[in-house]
Amino acid sequence: MLSRVNHKNFVNLIGYYEEDEPFNRMIVFEYAPNGTLFQHLHVKEMEHLDWSARMRIIMGIACCLQYMHHDLNPPVSHSNLNSHNIFLTDDYADTIADISFLPQDSSKSKSLGNNELVHSTLAPLADVGTNVYCFGILLLEIIFGKLQYSKEQGINYMIDPTLKSFKNNELDLICEIIQECIQPNPRQRPTMKDITSKLREVIAISPDQAIRRLSLLWWVELEILSIEVT
Predict the structure, then answer these.
(1) Which of 15, 95, 113, 223 is within CB 3.0–4.6 Å of 11 for a Cys-Cys bond?
(2) pLDDT 10s per residue in the chain (230 long)?
(3) Domain spans of the chain?
């Protein structure tokens, strides 16, 4: 399932290793040196992200989810979408990871606010509506620093205090998308294709700009590593 997701904003699956004596299993992914989105949003010692960096991350996540929902056949959704599973590259592009590899058990689903249920692995099309809901909650966290949401509390438009500046038109759009994504009825939620279309109308970041920029230094490091291995 993971090897089917071939998108530059999804963590690259490098390989799989197994050994029987001693028993060992390992899945190898590319290294994202700047930690997780959660750390940059909530850990005081980490470098905080400015407005443009957050818009780039949002665009990258949206484009990757659109690919997963609309370009793959059959479609899949990332059913454990949260800031712990968003890793940042050396130039702070986002790579979405799914690091839950236990067999799926519908009797042990995880519960979100608003009675949403998500499983611990990449899920089939039936969970796309939940995936969109999770994306809305992730937007709340990225812009407002909120870790939880409840219908009773509603959306409190107190922007993350670590943000020194922001663009009003982009903020208005994000708030509109959040409201649409967290609709109680999944049928009333937008598709990821609808969401990326709206984002691209207002946010001046193309899908190509949202992916990792490969620098000359990166290629040099890769060549050094390959020589050391051989």
Answers:
(1) 95
(2) 777 888 999 988 888 889 988 899 888 888 888 999 999 999 988 988 999 999 999 999 999 999 999 999 888 888 689 999 999 998 899 999 875 543 334 333 444 444 443 333 454 444 888 899 999 999 999 999 887 666 655 665 688 988 999 999 999 999 999 999 999 999 999 999 999 999 999 998 988 888 887 655 555 555 666 566 55
(3) 2-229
Please give the single-letter amino acid code of residue 200: R
Residue 224, CA distances (Å) to 99, 167, 217, 230 in order: 28, 42, 11, 10
Taking the chain, what is the end-to-end CA distance rounded to the nearest angstrom? Answer: 31
- Sequence-distant (≥ 6) Cβ neighbours of residue 189 within 8 angstroms: 129, 132, 133, 180, 181, 182, 183
The token pair that represents 182 in the structure block? 């967290």
3-state SS assignment for residue 122: coil
Identify the residue whose tokens are 């470098």.
47
Q: Given this structure, which CATH class describes domain 2-229? A: mainly alpha
Give the whole-angstrom CA distance, residue 196 versus residue 193.
Answer: 5
Residue with tokens 């290793």: 17
The CA distance from 53 to 32, in Å, is 16
Neighbours of 29 (CB within 10 A): 15
SS3 of residue 46 by DSSP: coil
Read off the pTM. Answer: 0.79
C-alpha distances out from residue 109 to 14, 117, 154, 222, Å? 28, 6, 25, 40
Closest CA to 132 of 84, 86, 173, 186: 186
What token pair was written down for 105?
């058990």
